[in-house]
Amino acid sequence: MKKDCIFCRINSGEIPSATIFENDEFRVMLDRFPATNGHILIIPKEHVEDIYELDPLVAARMFEFATRFASILKKTFGNEGLNILQNNGKVAGQTVFHYHLHLIPRYENDSVRIGWEANSQMTSEELEEFVDKIKSNM
Ligand code: AMP
Ligand code: ZN
């Protein structure tokens, strides 16, 4: 529990939340400032700042819930699509520094913009070089 962390304060019950589900490990709640109807967050109860601090096995269990809630949201809201998003670091858009997964139902003509434009096209040599570089750190 981190005192100045809003999600830890939610987990401790100090701040109210619209919780849909919780167990010992996770909370699933509505985002208070949603991108679309049905935007939910899955958060671990333990304070970890970002993916670099998250146990991969906890992440695996978390994704099981993401999969289950994707279907539950679709059944509830009838959304045509869904984005699962997870931001790490300010530069990547993280604003709450307690790890969380976003499930954002998408609707025809909603005004949400998630995406990027390609900055370049890599050559086969560059691709190979990056494969080698990354492999050297595995
Ligand atoms: P991120 O920008 O990925 O760190 O996402 C943080 C998310 O937390 C945003 O979508 C906010 O709308 C959401 N948020 C902030 N405060 C609360 C709160 N008190 N209850 C629920 N969601 C919140
Ligand atoms: Zn926290």
What helical percentage do the residues reach? 25-40%
Order of helices and strands: HEEEHEEH
Summarize model confidence as the mean pLDDT.
Answer: 97
Distance between the termini: 32 Å
Main sheet strand line-up: 1-2-3-5-4
The stretches of 5 or more residues where confidence is low (pLDDT under 50) are none
- The amount of beta strand, in percent, is 15-25%
Walk me through the structure.
This protein has 138 residues and is α+β, with helices and mostly antiparallel strands. It has one domain: HIT family, subunit A (2-Layer Sandwich), CATH 3.30.428.10. The chain has helices spanning 6-11, 56-77, 124-135; strands spanning 19-22, 26-30, 40-44, 81-85, 101-106. Strand 1 and strand 2 form a beta hairpin. The longest helix has 22 residues, at 56-77. Residues 6, 17, 31-33, 41, 87, 93-96 line the site of adenosine monophosphate.
